[in-house]
């Protein structure tokens, strides 16, 4: 299958800010685990990528309308999404967690959210999880476009908490983003590269072949270590 992609260029959509998976570094370049992984796989398999940094919900819409051939965006492999997308082999295990402002001493559990508003990123597992427990705990869910905006909403005091993927929350907290994590991880899905169902199967096969090669030669682990052991 890998030969079918050789020399071709594929448009791949991603999120705007989802560090350490995709984010702009000090020089304005889009970097992160997803970006390094995709570039390394493309090189390994002999294809090129044209990255479109659109935002999470917008990336999924761009894929569905065939403006791009793939999405890599810390995108969780869920049963619901598998109805419309085909996913690569999983490349990172994740799950949802709750964070509040660093100086908040009153909200420590889901029950403490009673009567309050929480911010989530539209179209994400964090949104789905928040909606699944909001009635039982009596809180309101506000969906916004990206991770930076939901974190700002908490810091501004408009929302009291966010639900987001734990590696992303942990990375942000390690960078002193003004939040702290207060609940255990919810069991979550793994991340995968997505294409539209039954389309671009050669690209998907090349991604899986490249991922397997990078796992075998140690480059996959090097990419993880670069962003997770010593955050920039
Ligand atoms: N992993 C989450 C999901 O797929 C969030 C992805 C993201 O915000 N980029 O829903």
UniProtKB/TrEMBL annotation:
Name by which UniProt lists this protein: Amino acid ABC transporter substrate-binding protein/permease
Places the protein is found: Cell membrane
Family membership: Belongs to the binding-protein-dependent transport system permease family.
Upper classification of the organism: Bacteria, Bacillati, Actinomycetota, Actinomycetes, Micrococcales
Source organism (scientific name): Arthrobacter cryoconiti
């Amino acid at each position: 299958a890998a030969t079918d992609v050789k020399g071709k260029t594929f448009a791949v959509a991603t999120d705007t800010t989802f560090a350490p998976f995709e984010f702009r570094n000090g020089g304005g370049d889009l970097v992160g685990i997803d970006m390094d992984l995709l570039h390394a796989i493309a090189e390994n398999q002999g294809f090129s990528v044209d990255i479109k940094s659109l935002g999470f919900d917008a990336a999924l819409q761009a894929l569905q309308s065939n403006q791009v051939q793939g999405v890599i965006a810390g995108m969780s492999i869920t049963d619901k999404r598998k109805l419309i997308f085909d996913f690569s082999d999983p490349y990172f295990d994740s799950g949802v967690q709750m964070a509040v402002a660093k100086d908040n001493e009153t909200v420590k559990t889901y029950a403490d959210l009673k009567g309050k508003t929480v911010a989530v990123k539209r179209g994400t597992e964090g949104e789905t999880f928040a909606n699944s427990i909001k009635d039982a705990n009596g809180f309101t869910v506000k969906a916004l476009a990206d991770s930076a905006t939901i974190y700002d909403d908490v810091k501004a005091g408009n929302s009291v908490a966010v639900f987001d993927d734990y590696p992303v929350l942990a990375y942000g907290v390690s960078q002193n983003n003004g939040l702290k994590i207060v609940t255990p991880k919810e069991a979550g899905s793994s991340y995968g590269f997505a294409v539209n169902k039954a389309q671009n199967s050669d690209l998907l096969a090349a991604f899986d072949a490249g991922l397997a090669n990078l796992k075998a030669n140690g480059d996959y682990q090097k990419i993880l270590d670069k962003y997770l052991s010593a955050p920039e």
